[in-house]
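Reopening: structure tokens for the magnesium ion complex, inputs below.
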Amino acid sequence: MTTIARIETFLVAPRWLFVRVETASGIVGWGEATCEGRSETVRTAVHELAELLTGRDALRIEDHWQVMTKGAFYRGGPILASAVAGLDQALWDIAGKHFGAPVHQLLGGPVRDRIRVYGWVGGDDPSEVREHIAAQVEAGLTAVKMNASGRMSRLASVSELDGVVARVAAAREVLGPDRDVAVDLHGRFTLANARRVAPLLEPYRPMFLEEPVVPENSHLIGEVVRSTTVPVSTGERLYSRQDFLPVLQAGIAVAQPDLSHAGGITEVRKIATLAETYDVQLAPHCPLGPIALAACLQLGFATPNFLIQEQSLGIHYNLGADVLDYCLDKTPLTFVDGHVERLTGPGLGIEIDEAAVRAADKAGTVWRSPVWRHPDGSYAEW
Ligand SMILES: [Mg+2]
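Re-run output (same inputs, fresh job):
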């Protein structure tokens, strides 16, 4: 029996919200509904949605997605899409375990044998980029991502601009010509700043330039695309195919949906297909936990236009717990030469340490996005 019997949530250190779905026959599926800084709200949404799933057949994933996403009249946004995402991942995990196959097999089978991953360097204010990059290279990674800056003035000063260029130049020097650096503007730049800085970074050939404008200003991203040869990426704060369509039409090169924010495997699979029609590559956002990472990888093994996977091992946010701490077997998510080998276990392909998760939830955790201010006291984008 694949009837959904029980749905539980766990909010665990450092800042992750896990969803556990159990069927009447005892199959357990795990999903991750983390919405950084908003996970308590998402947790409530998961339990509201659970009313729609309990007593239903877990294997009717697409129908559940339709009902959860559309079935309450008020739709869309990060809270609902993250709650749906966590439940959707858990249902895919159950389906894989029921059929004895990894999720990517259910999505049409593997199109690649390993997936390249990148790691974070530099933290929120990237001052020690060289040391951090050297450590990631030493660990075998072939690509890293860094913030371009800390807080940015609305119209950047010469020293702010020079600081961005110097950081990216330093990264390129340490990485050499055969490794990649992605540069995240993190929505900290105004359109004017983004257009000014992008051409200055061209000599260092970043892999992509991320979130050059805040998602509310997605209608401006085409201006950034037209200002530079650097591939432009965005998408961690877009939650559906409909959210992605305008930025795809504006000419981005890389789409970065988050499988825990954009409706899960079901919706991101469709975003990937939509992106394919614009010759856009997929690089899912994932500074999150092991379940979100496994969901990304499962999608990546079955998706032709998949570029690279973000992962958060050792990231500055992971205080108190790291990616592998809740995995019984660390091998599936171990990196070999900067890649993850194809996951072969059923479902999402990882085994969650349930006792550790329950203990971490009891201990509790709270994480909030920082609130930054400009020197004049006004709000500054983080
Ligand atoms: Mg980002």
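Residues 4-101 form a domain with the Enolase-like; domain 1 fold (CATH 3.30.390.10). The first strand starts at residue 4 and ends at 12. Marking as resolved unless the reporter disagrees.
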